[in-house]
Design brief:
about 170 residues, mainly alpha
Length: about 170
């Protein structure tokens, strides 16, 4: 059975060394419920996301056994690509589907009298699609700033002169 990229991605998250970190990385890569095309992958993603966001036990990913309990016919494939490539393949497939839908809608609605309006709408849809699928490159300030502060304090502690200037 040929396994699809979506299920391979979910498999790599669930079976990874640090599933919560992989799930967060996938989200930073722009993946969400909307990104998945297959119903099985959508249902799995929604289940993982709901489990991850539980208020009383935030940040945990269900085990493969727990997912199999919810989805008895679940057969997660072994990932054959690395995690980031899988994220890219799933995101690219989503973009392809959304672009094809926008073009099909354009072709079904185009009339000579409404040509410019329809082209403008297609341009806006494709622009929104590009904007919504761009991966987030922001850095979490609290994580970076904390680590930089610790590194700087260690550097000062290890230096011969100590702290110079007004304390």
């Amino acid at each position: 059975m040929a396994s699809n990229w979506e299920l391979q991605l979910i498999s790599s998250i669930v079976r990874g060394e640090s599933p919560p970190d992989l799930f967060e990385s996938a989200q930073k890569e722009g993946l969400s419920f909307r990104t998945f095309g297959g119903m099985e992958a959508k249902n799995l993603w929604a289940t993982i996301d709901a489990h991850y966001r539980r208020p009383h036990n935030f940040g945990y990913i269900p085990s493969e056994e727990a997912l199999t309990e919810s989805f008895p016919s679940l057969d997660l494939p072994k990932p054959v690509e690395n995690f980031l490539d899988l994220c890219g393949k799933v995101r690219d497939a989503h973009l392809r589907r959304e672009t094809e839908n926008a073009v099909q809608q354009y072709l079904s609605e185009v009339e000579p009298s409404k040509g410019l309006t329809t082209i403008t709408e297609l341009h806006q849809q494709l622009g929104q699609l590009l904007e919504s699928s761009t991966a987030e490159n922001d850095v979490c300030f609290s994580k970076v700033a904390f680590q930089e502060t610790i590194d700087e304090l260690r550097k000062i502690e290890n230096s011969d002169g100590g702290i110079t200037g007004i304390p």
